[in-house]
Amino acid sequence: MSFRTAQIRLVSSHPEVYEPCDDSFALVDALLADRNHLLEHHPTLCMEVGCGSGYIITSLALMLGQDSPGVQYFATDINPDAVRVTSETLEAHGVHAELINTDIASGLEKRLAGLVDVMVVNPPYVPTPEDEVGREGIASAWAGGENGRCVIDKILPIADNLLSEKGWLYMVTLTANNPSEICIQMREKGYASRIVVQRSTEEESLHVIKFWRDFDTQADAKETTKTNKPVPARLMESLVSQFPLSSFWRSSGSNSN
Ligand SMILES: C[S@@+](CC[C@H](N)C(=O)[O-])C[C@H]1O[C@@H](n2cnc3c(N)ncnc32)[C@H](O)[C@@H]1O
């Protein structure tokens, strides 16, 4: 395999645009780790929400490259400077994506509903006061509101609407975002999940979680809704094995309210 993400050059930058950092690298590493599955998946439409410098969408397009011809790429960002920087990054690497300066996927709902085979998101996930969310410029790159979940919680139902039947979502989360609760929420929409990459520092733990539609999960979710039974034991076991117990039990507690 000749692909090297290290070949991605920061050809353009802007003080108000997020430069690729540990979370960006973790997401690209997750995509690389899953590259063979991605090629077998034969995506026709891939999308990034919150493209920043363009590092992720450019990496994805190069990674799938000639082995996956004819793929259409879309990327959105709420920050117009990010859209401009992404455009320059893509162009410098000889790949193309349709870029849209918008809030998550606003204006694309009808056009892309049920069509996105791969969605990648490194959202603003840092816990901040709510009033910092949605500010212009670089603050939009990290400000995530309470538990860092404000933008994430808006993205999840939109992703559910845009993803195709075989669609996959790769999302970066922080332990503070309560990832096990996110997985339970997505499970209620019929998605299974697994951690593709986990990175820990002294201060925080990043997870890149992959979500996909799963018939068993859908059946479990319907059964749970119908009978009002708790989350089935085997799902609990799989989540416990994936997340640190502290975060799991915290989410469990809030879920049972
Ligand atoms: C953590 S940065 C990630 C940037 C890039 N994807 C990366 O991994 O290096 C989050 C990005 O999401 C964008 N963003 C924040 N809120 C958004 C929203 N509501 N809709 C679209 N993009 C948003 C920010 O402008 C920023 O570029």
Automatic annotation (TrEMBL):
It is found in: Nucleus. Keywords: Methyltransferase, Nucleus, S-adenosyl-L-methionine, Transferase. GO terms for biological process: methylation. Its main location: nucleus. One of its GO terms (cellular component) is eRF1 methyltransferase complex. GO terms for molecular function: nucleic acid binding; protein methyltransferase activity; S-adenosylmethionine-dependent methyltransferase activity. InterPro entries: DNA_methylase_N6_adenine_CS, Euk-Arch_PrmC-MTase, PrmC-related, SAM-dependent_MTases_sf, Small_mtfrase_dom. Residues 38-130 form the Methyltransferase small domain. PROSITE patterns: N6_MTASE (PS00092). Pfam families: MTS. It comes from the Eukaryota. SUPFAM superfamilies: S-adenosyl-L-methionine-dependent methyltransferases. Belongs to the eukaryotic/archaeal PrmC-related family. PANTHER family: METHYLTRANSFERASE N6AMT1. This is HemK methyltransferase family member 2. It comes from Morella rubra (Chinese bayberry).
